[in-house]
Amino acid sequence: MRALALLLTLPLAVAAEPFVPSGDAEIVQRLPYRVDAAERQRRAALARDPAQLPLAAATARAALQRARVHGDPRELGVAQAALAPWWQLADAPAEAVLLRARVLQARHEFDAAQADLRRLLARGDLTPQDRAQALLDAAALHQLRGELPEARARCEPLQPLAALPAAACLAELDSLSGKATSAARTLAGLSPGRTVPPWLALMRAELAERLGDEAAAPGLYRTALAGEDAVYTRAALADWLLARRRAAAALGLVEDSPDAEADALLLRRVIALRQLGRDAAMPTALLRERLAAAERREPGRHAREQARFALDVEQQPREALRLARANWALQREPADALLLLRAALAAGRDGDATRRELAATLRDKGWQDARLATLDRSFAP
């Protein structure tokens, strides 16, 4: 059920000076992976005949996986290039449409991704496998946007096609609709043995954190680190540690990653260094430049980490509140609610109206989140 890992090609609303290395020997960024010989051969074959859909789909799928695993947004361009012959076709083959929608979603072009999936699900020529995948992707996208009834309407018909993903999907929606405790039991029951699949461990870890289960959450996050959402999961666990002022552990977690230079982890590194009172000037300058470059590429599209940078690094609560509100208009996951509340509280009286609006919205949905209640009793169940 997890949406694609967050790819932090994020805009920054403030001017930024370009990051300039101090010398030729200074490392600007380490790439955590190399494209293997098989992938190079596949790209060469595709360049000779771009209309080979099986080859194009394999290339796009591999690029999306690398983007997800390593948090590298450049791979989205590789995926789009592979799908170029079908990129503008409304009636493209189902496989191409599914991959196109994933690229669009990863770029936060949610309306376009949703339109692709809606048109695809209206077709009568889908295989059961393609229909199941389209339903799952559409449900994830609706959930990300806080459209829970619409997400449920996509999860329910998934049950005869893919029982386990459907059960997880419905449980996660229950967890956001006033049934968090029973949802946690349901998710635990989906893997009754000692071995928990990483994707399920990640869902359970995030729910455990919302329920305030201090014993379960970190272990589940560490189990989830074995999965393909490694950058996303490592960032989530780092946030769990940072929220408990365990900055040294968070810093070690980030720096131990082969993807330590990914923007998501670089941000957590900067925050951890600041909490520890250590010099963070160089990574802060590098992150600021990356975010500014992303702003030039895709202005105004990604505000979650932009707001986090303004709040926790630049110490600009009013700007953070503005950005967090823009982000909440785009996506409405628990992390977005937490960010909006933190920004509203940091902004003082300027954030009072936002805090009240958020509390009313989440109360209507039945959201339970111990983190919100800890910050503001208005969010207590």
From TrEMBL:
Keyword terms of this UniProt record: Signal
Top-level taxon in the UniProt lineage: Bacteria
Signal peptide coordinates: 1-15
Protein name per the record: Tetratricopeptide repeat protein
